[in-house]
Amino acid sequence: MKRLIPPLETAVEWLMALALGVMVLAIGSNVVLRYVFNTGIPAAEEVARLMFVWMIFLGAILALHRGAHLGMEIFQARLPRSLRRACAIVSHLLILYALWLFLVGSWDQTVIGLNTYSTVLGFPMALMASGGLVCAAAMLPMVALNLWRIVTKHPAARIPGEAPAVHHAAETAPEVSQ
Fold first, then answer.
1. What is the model's pTM?
2. How many Å apart are CA 29 and CA 32, to the nearest integer?
3. From 7, 71, 97, 135, which residue has the greatest number of CB atoms within 10 Å?
């Protein structure tokens, strides 16, 4: 499983880069066409919106995996270790509940979107809603795994307010040049 993660991360990064490229091309060409030729591509907005939704959801998955989501750790860092762990357990349980709601809601929207189509291109709106479905389905096991690590006091557990584990610190430590 550990060998599968880096190629998946790379694939997600490439998909995000592709989505960004398509967005820039669609919106940029539409701007030029409108201001220079007084015309435009009606589908550009739909394509850009679809790419934006997927880019955001894929980025959220990567951010969670890398521990890069924004958080309020200042308060938690001042707590004793046992309270930090308890706070992390409660917050992870709440996150799992929220992700479950997100998964169920995204599933419902994806099913509804199978019979609803975009205005210009006519693609099923399920393509839009399925971004949330993929995001929630990917984040649920990641949060559950970290919760398990916190409960079992595994050294790789990420607890807000604590310094990253040694193997993470080496990856994120800034280089010092003299």
1. 0.82
2. 5
3. 135
CA 9/CA 67 separation, integer angstroms = 14
| Beta-carbon count within 10 A of 57 CB | 20
Q: Are 143 and 127 in contact (CB under 8 A)?
A: no
- Token pair belonging to 91: 């917050």
23-24-30-32 Cα dihedral, nearest 10 degrees: 180
Gap between the Cα atoms of 24 and 16, Å rounded: 12
User: In this structure, what token pair is assigned to residue 39?
Assistant: 């015309």
- Spatial separation of the C-alpha atoms in residues 29 and 97, rounded to whole Å: 42
Mean pLDDT, to the nearest integer, of 128-143? Answer: 96
pLDDT for position 162: 82
pLDDT in tens, 22-48: 999 999 999 999 999 988 888 999 999
- Sign of the Cα pseudo-torsion (55, 60, 61, 63, in order): positive
Q: Name the DSSP letter for residue 117.
A: B
